[in-house]
Specification:
33% of the residues lie in helices and 23% in strands. The chain is an alpha+beta fold. It has a five-stranded mixed β-sheet with strand order 1-7-6-4-5, sandwiched between helices. A four-stranded mixed β-sheet has the order 8-15-14-13, with helices on both faces. Strands 2-3 form a two-stranded antiparallel sheet. Helix 8 packs parallel to helix 9. The longest helix has 22 residues, at 256-277. It binds acetyl coenzyme *A. The site of acetyl coenzyme *A has 23 residues, from helix 2 and helix 8.
Length: 364
C-alpha cells in the first residue's frame, strides 16, 4: 500500500481585525463575557462580510477616515477564493512544488462563492496547465479532516500523487449580526496543505476515524429559506409553485449548549479510536490540534485525553472559529514558528455542523 505525507502548509487571513470591544459596540456583549466563555479575543473578517453597523461604528471609533478608507481599499479583494489561493501558494512554496504537477485540488468549504463549487476557480488562479481534477467538499468544521482523509484515499487507491487540500470558510457572511450568541464566534480564513504519495514506511497519515449524525444536525445549521415560493395561479385557478422564487440561506442557527456537549462527548472518543488504530496512546503524541471553536471545548478534550496544556495547539484567541480553515491555519502557524517539527505526531480532530466529526493521526 502506498503511503502519503504532508510536505507543505500555508494560510491566509483577511487584514481587518475585529476585537471583542468592536463587537460590544454593535451587540450587547463584553470583552470579558466573550473571552471567559470562548477564549476568543479577535477575529479576522473579509470587509464585504461586515454588518453596516460595524462599518459605521468603525468610522466613529477608529480614528481618521483616511485609515478606514485605506482598510477598505486594501481588503476589497479579500474574496474567499483569493484567501484560498494565497494559502495554497504558500503551501506549494514551502514544499518547493510546481502547481503544474498537481493532480487534484480539494477545496473544503461550506461557504463557496458559487453554489457549484470554488475548487476549479482556484485551480485556474494557481495556473495549473494540465487541468487537474478540482472539487469541493462540504462538511462544515470537519471539512479539513475529511479532505485530508479523502486526499489519502485518492493517493492510496486512485493513482493520484500530488493533492492540494484547502480548508477555507467565510462564515461571517452567514451570521446574524443581531444575535450575540453566534456573531461573536466566527472569523474568516483559509489554510492549505500539500499531500504527496510516498513509500509506505514514510507514511504521514497513521490512522483516522470519521462520523456523522444527521439527527443531531438540528442543533447547528444555516438552512435554505424554503418559505419564499410565489403563489401563482394557473389557468384553472389552482395555486402553482412555478416558477420558484430565488433562493437564499438563513443565518447560522445554533444551540450552543448542545453543540458543546456533543463536542466534549464525541471528540475524545474519536481521537481514542484513531490512536488505537495507529497503535498509539496520547503519551506518544506530540501535539493535540482540535478545530478551534471554543477554548473550553479544547481544554475539556485535552483533560479527558490526558494531554498537558503545553502539548495543545491553540490560536483561537486571535482568529475565532474559522470553520474548515481552523486546523490548517493553526498547523501552519505551529510549523512556521518551529513548534511542530519534522517527525512530530499530531492528533487532529474536527467537529461541527451536520453533525460531523472526525480525527486523523498525522506524522509531520
Ligand atoms: N455576550 C453576553 N451575554 C451573552 C452572549 C454574549 N455574546 N451570548 C449569550 N449570552 C447570554 C445569553 O443570552 C444567556 O443569558 P440569560 O441567562 O440571561 O438567558 C447567557 O449568556 C448564557 O447563554 P448560553 O447560550 O447558555 O451561554 P453558553 O455558556 O452556552 O455559551 C457559547 C455560549 C459560547 C456559544 C457556547 O455554548 C459554545 O461555545 N458552544 C459551542 C459552539 C461551537 O463549538 N460551535 C462549533 C461548531 S461551529 C460549525 O460547525 C459551523
Amino acid at each position: 500500500r502506498k503511503g502519503c505525507k504532508l510536505v507543505g502548509c500555508g494560510s491566509a487571513v483577511p487584514s481587518l481585525s475585529v476585537s471583542n470591544d468592536d463587537l460590544s459596540k454593535i451587540v450587547d456583549t463584553s470583552d470579558e463575557w466573550i473571552s471567559v466563555r470562548t477564549g476568543i479575543r479577535n477575529r479576522r473578517q473579509k470587509m464585504e462580510s461586515l454588518h453596516p453597523l460595524y462599518i459605521l461604528s468603525s468610522l466613529f471609533h477608529r480614528g481618521p477616515v483616511w485609515r478606514f478608507l485605506l482598510t477598505i481599499a486594501l481588503t476589497g479583494k479579500e474574496s474567499l477564493k483569493n484567501l484560498a489561493v494565497e494559502a495554497a501558494r504558500k503551501a506549494l512554496e514551502m514544499a518547493d512544488f510546481d502547481p503544474n504537477d498537481l493532480d487534484l485540488i480539494l477545496m473544503c468549504t461550506s461557504t463557496p462563492e458559487d453554489i457549484f463549487g470554488s475548487a476549479p476557480q482556484i485551480q485556474r488562479e494557481l495556473g495549473c496547465r494540465n487541468s487537474p481534477l478540482a472539487y469541493d467538499i462540504t462538511a462544515a468544521c470537519s471539512g479539513f479532516v475529511l479532505g485530508l482523509i479523502s486526499a489519502a484515499s485518492h493517493i492510496r487507491g486512485g493513482g493520484f500523487c500530488n493533492v492540494l487540500v484547502i480548508g477555507a470558510d467565510g462564515l461571517s457572511r452567514f451570521v446574524d449580526w443581531t444575535d450575540r450568541g453566534t456573531c461573536i464566534l466566527f472569523g474568516d480564513a483559509a489554510g492549505a496543505v500539500l499531500v504527496q504519495a510516498c513509500d509506505a514506511e514514510e507514511d504521514g497519515l497513521l490512522s483516522f476515524d470519521l462520523h456523522s449524525d444527521g439527527e443531531g444536525g438540528r442543533h447547528l445549521g444555516a438552512p435554505i429559506n424554503d418559505n419564499e415560493t410565489d403563489e401563482l395561479l394557473g389557468s384553472n385557478g389552482s395555486a402553482l409553485d412555478f416558477p420558484p422564487k430565488k433562493s437564499s440561506y438563513s443565518c447560522i442557527q445554533m444551540n450552543g449548549k448542545e453543540v458543546f456537549r456533543f463536542a466534549v462527548r464525541c471528540v475524545p472518543q474519536s481521537i481514542e479510536s484513531a490512536l488505537e488504530k495507529a497503535g498509539l496512546v496520547s503519551g506518544n503524541v506530540d501535539w493535540l490540534l482540535l478545530h478551534q471553536a471554543n477554548q473550553r471545548i479544547i481544554d475539556a478534550v485535552a483533560t479527558r485525553l490526558d494531554f498537558p496544556q503545553e502539548k495543545v495547539i491553540s490560536n483561537l484567541a486571535n482568529y475565532g472559529n474559522t470553520s474548515a480553515a481552523s486546523i490548517p491555519l493553526a498547523l501552519d502557524e505551529a510549523v512556521r514558528s518551529g513548534k511542530v517539527k519534522p517527525g512530530h505526531t499530531i492528533a487532529a480532530a474536527g467537529f461541527g455542523a451536520g453533525l460531523t466529526w472526525g480525527s486523523a493521526i498525522i506524522r509531520w
